[in-house]
Amino acid sequence: MTNLVSGLIILIVVYIIGWHQLYGQFIHEAFKKYQWYLIFLSIPCTYFSIIAARLISEYFNGKMWPNRIFTFSIGIVMFTILTQIYFNEKLNMVCPMICAPRISNASSNHSPLAKPVSGELLSKAITNTVIAQKK
């Protein structure tokens, strides 16, 4: 159990640092000014990510999928939390549902992904989402 908890804690810290490396430029000028320090910070973050992956994989007897599910989930949760804290952006499922390809039975292979959404419809969906969030 300690391998799992240790791995998850390391991943959370690494994801918080990584989020600030990518999106800090929109928070404070120092992130823009000292980009090279952020780049060098990637080296220890990568090292700790490797350690976390090893710990989680060991906990699950060498299986990779549990590790992938944990890393993906932690990334999504941390992104959502940090984006809410710094930018006051809440998770919004309207745009992904509207922007997803339309279901169509008109194609020859009956693929649900047959007709992509037009650029005009996509633009309207994004605009309406932004306007709705500002209200």
Tell me what you see in this structure:
The longest helix is centred in the middle third of the chain and has 25 residues, at 35-59. The protein contains 6 helices and no strands. It folds into 2 domains: 2-87; 94-134, no CATH class. With 135 residues, it is mostly helical. Helices cover 72% and strands 0% of the residues.
Write the layout of secondary structure elements.
Elements: H1 2-23, H2 29-33, H3 35-59, H4 65-87, H5 94-99, H6 119-134
What keywords describe this structure?
2 domains; 0% strand; mainly alpha; single chain; 135 residues
Compact summary:
The chain is mainly α and 135 residues long. The protein has helices spanning 2-23, 29-33, 35-59, 65-87, 94-99, 119-134. The protein folds into two domains: 2-87; 94-134, no CATH class.
Instruction: Round the mean pLDDT to the nearest integer and report it.
Output: 81
Tally of individual helices: 6
Helix/strand-derived class? mainly alpha
Would you identify the regions where 5 or more consecutive residues have pLDDT less than 50?
Answer: 102-108, 110-114
Distance between the termini: 46 Å
Shape: globular
Major sheet, described briefly? none
Instruction: Please trace the helix and strand order, writing H or E for each element.
Output: HHHHHH
The total count of strands amounts to: 0
Helix content: over 70%
Beta-sheet strand percentage?
under 5%
Radius of gyration: 20 Å
Whole-number count of domains: 2
